[in-house]
Design a protein that fits this description.
Bound molecules: flavin mononucleotide
Helix content: 25-40%
């Protein structure tokens, strides 16, 4: 099992959905850092479930407790451990479907991998609960990157078939920053109502929908990324594919490159003062796995939530037969909506880690 990520800024995760607590241990925060607790709380709140009908009604407050590595409002430079209690557990909801392997979920694979000893309640270690400590670690990385002038944005670009303007062309103004920093969902205002309506329709149909979350990393210095195997893209891909339900990733033009010619795909290089820039940014600010100074933009495709109450057929390992299953418990009708702060957090963790690697 690997619950760790990062080379210099290292994150180690622990916990289960219905266990006592979830949390993480972070190494690599510079000693003497005065943590921006308000930013951490804000990011956790943006990820938090139970706000409205567009997310799972599980009512977690995500109050955290730092239990090591922080003294006199400063990091000590030693491992920082944080825990977040699981408060609103309703394990009974899962009892009736205990013997089923939920289609699209990790019940079957997890049971085989851990010889049936894994905690299945609420998805156990595979639950999105585990993304709360990721958001905690991401907020710290975001703070440390902001000190270097590096900024990260994320937004919902697509819900089912409804699409917002991509970071490829969107002009990043203070108004956009504010819009995407909303307490509920990071969606551009003109399209927000239509997207949420689509989610609600799926929910009322006892079903779920997928979506695309876009990430944007601005003001990255030239030279971050460690080819071959720790290229900027590889590191981001590793982190993004760790997010439960994330099934597709593309950088810049991504799959659209295949229908272009070289003359259309290449980003022409020019010099602006002492800075080298490109006329277009199809390659999303990365060449050869190394940042080129242009904005890094990418898309993460999230599948429709696996746990739906619409009746499906799946295997019951107690009766050894395929039976009808209607999943109870509380679930998100659209994972992508709540994944936006997680994509932001993962982007910050990777970028800060690569930044620090470059200093060594
Ligand atoms: C923010 C977020 C919320 C999620 N909520 C649910 C949920 O309510 N129900 C569910 O079945 N899966 C949910 N998932 C996805 C599952 O955790 C994921 O599908 C499962 O662990 C299997 O992993 P895989 O889809 O990557 O193969 C959520 C994921 C994220 C990132």
């Amino acid at each position: 099992m690997s619950s760790q990520i990062g080379s210099v800024y290292k994150l180690s995760l622990f916990g289960e959905s219905h266990g006592h607590s979830i949390g993480c241990v972070i190494e690599g925060i510079p000693a003497g850092t005065n943590l921006d607790i308000d930013l951490i709380k804000k990011r956790l709140n943006q990820r938090r479930p139970g706000k409205d009908k567009y997310s799972t009604p599980r009512g977690e407050r995500d109050t955290f407790e730092i239990i090591s590595g922080y003294h006199n409002d400063m990091t000590t430079g030693t491992p920082l451990c944080v825990t977040i209690k699981n408060i609103d557990k309703r394990s009974g909801d899962y009892k009736k479907t205990d013997a089923f392997w939920r289609p699209g979920h990790a019940d079957f694979t997890g049971s085989v991998k851990y010889n049936g000893a894994n905690d299945l309640r609420g998805g156990g270690h595979f639950s999105a609960r585990l993304t709360a400590p990721i958001v905690f670690a991401g907020a710290i990385a975001e703070q440390l990157l902001a000190e270097k002038g590096i900024e990260i944005l994320s937004q919902i670009q697509t819900v089912n078939c409804i699409t917002a303007e991509s970071f490829e062309s969107l002009e990043i103004t203070d108004n956009i920053r504010q819009m995407l920093d909303a307490e509920d969902y990071a969606i551009q205002t003109p399209i927000k109502e239509a997207m949420l309506k689509t989610v609600d329709e799926a929910r009322r149909d006892k079903d779920s929908v997928g979506g695309i979350v876009e990430g944007l990393i601005l003001n990255v210095p030239v030279g971050l990324g460690e080819p071959f195997f720790d290229s900027f893209e590889s590191k981001l891909a590793h982190a993004m594919f760790s997010i439960p339900g994330m099934k597709g990733l593309s950088f810049g033009k991504g799959f659209d490159f295949t229908s272009m010619r070289g003359s259309q795909a290449n980003d022409m290089i020019y010099k602006s003062g002492i800075t080298v820039k490109t006329m277009t940014n199809n390659n999303a600010g990365i060449n050869g796995g190394i940042s080129n100074g242009m904005p890094i933009w990418f898309k993460c495709a999230f599948k429709p939530t696996a746990s739906i109450s619409k009746t499906q057929k799946t295997y019951n390992y107690e009766t050894h037969s395929v039976e009808a299953l209607s999943i109870e418990g509380r679930h998100d009708p659209c994972i992508a909506l709540r994944a936006v702060p997680i994509v932001k957090a993962m982007s910050a963790i990777v970028t800060y880690d690569l930044y620090r690697e470059r200093q060594i």
